[in-house]
Amino acid sequence: MKIPDKKECFIIINDNKMMDHIIKHSMMVRSVASLLCSNLIKTFPELNIKLAKSAGLLHDITKTQSFTTGEKHSETGARLLAELGFPETGDIVRQHVFLDNYNTNPPVTEAEIINYSDKRVLHDSVVPLNERLDYIYKKYVTNKEFIKHFDSMEKNTYILEIKIFSYLDFRPNDLQKMI
Description:
With 179 residues, this protein is mainly α. It has helices spanning 6-15, 20-40, 49-58, 63-69, 73-83, 87-94, 110-120, 129-140, 144-165, 175-178, and strands spanning 121-122, 125-126.
């Protein structure tokens, strides 16, 4: 498996002209994912921290262009990364908005960690889950397709939070202090 290192991630970011505020958001998502992985790896040694960190940095790689094109940035980001030779990172990027499966059984996966980490970072700050979900609703629930999926995503994200934190010795509200 080929995973872009931090330097390669920033080359990809620069090549795709990501807006500064999206870069800052992505850097914070990477930090949250790194913290979660480094604590979850005790229980799930198969977790690939490097994969999670690269996916955290690149999860919004095509978001800047999506403002103009209206494309689904999770899908175009996944395609871009696959074309660049990073299909595993791209698959996690594809799932950062909606996971393929919301599974309550172990293990905790890199895709779940990135999906959850993104739902905890508003702009470049770690916030409570309800605050971020309220923001997502107000900002993005503007078309019928997303409205249909939002309630399910919200419910599943709270379940995902319970799953992740059942394996940690700190609580969701502790994240803000730990980053």
